[in-house]
Amino acid sequence: MSSDPTHNDQEPDPALAAEPSGGGGARKPGPGLFIVATPIGNAGDVTLRALETLRAAHAVACEDTRVTAKLLARYGIRAPLLQYHEHNAARMRPQILARVAAGETIALVSDAGTPLISDPGYKLVREAREQGLPVTHLPGPSAALTALVLSGLPSDRFLFAGFLPNKRKARRDALAELKGVRATLVLFESAQRLEDFLADAADVLGGREVAVARELTKLFEEVRRGTLADLAAHYAAAGPPKGEVVVVIGPPPEPEAAAEETVDAMILDALSRLSLRDAAAEVAAATGQPRKAVYARALELSQARDEDPDA
Questions:
Q1: Last residue in a domain, options 84, 109, 141
Q2: Range of 282's domain?
Q3: What dihedral do alpha carbons 175, 180, 185, 190 form, nearest 10°?
Q4: Are residues 181 and 244 in the same domain?
Q5: What is the pLDDT of residues 163-194, one digit of tens each?
Q6: Maximum C-alpha span of the chain
Q7: In CA terms, which of 21, 103, 156, 222 is 20 to 30 Å from 286?
Q8: 0.85 cut: is pTM over it?
Q9: Cα–Cα distance between 284 and 21 in angstroms, integer?
Q10: At what angle do helices 228-238 and 194-205 cross, to 10 degrees?
């Protein structure tokens, strides 16, 4: 999207319009809700724009005031703090939005990384948008993206699945739902449950590649790679790792091309039960072959069968 306002049919967002353009000196942010990414480990990863906004904010909404206070103190920032987390979000949202509507600059941060990723911040953003209030995001650190980049696994298509359920059956059911997703999976998991998670993933997903990333951007950053079964065995022997953990699981292998005779048999069987279109769709889904190619072959077989019913 062009940053040139002449190429935008809508009025510029007041929060965005008040932000530094990058070509001149910093300007005080205007009123609005600012979603501010904070470091995930290395405090030096905070952006200049984040610091400018936090200094100018009338208040900073955060998960844990103790954690955010340490970050602000490091940079000499004395902004008032508001607790905003899963347990008080319904009560705090109207208060925060009322302050934005009154013309204040409110920053939203998480304990680490990009807000809204596995936290209730998205509801705040949604309601702010519904009320027509200015909202913008100050991009920065993200544990999920950092782990994906460091994993060495395919990154052209990925799904962030957050935390899966704690209990084994529910976790395995969730993994079964993800099994057919043709993308790299990025998940959060606690160090204490990591071994059990990897063992369940190995049973449900098979021998996929996996990378376990921990202590990202910190002194003892580590990314351990292998198969799901290999790393499950490693952590069973070594015990839970230290630090925050992100698990990146490679996509499922491409389906092997079915032999031509097998595909023809599948098509003929499907044609005996279904319409031409539905038969092609069923076989394409089962074999992974392009639907247009399967449809064309199904049409050929259907015509040949009609011409010679005894064949």
A1: 141
A2: 260-307
A3: 0
A4: yes
A5: 999 999 999 999 999 998 999 999 999 999 99
A6: 87
A7: 156
A8: no
A9: 50
A10: 160
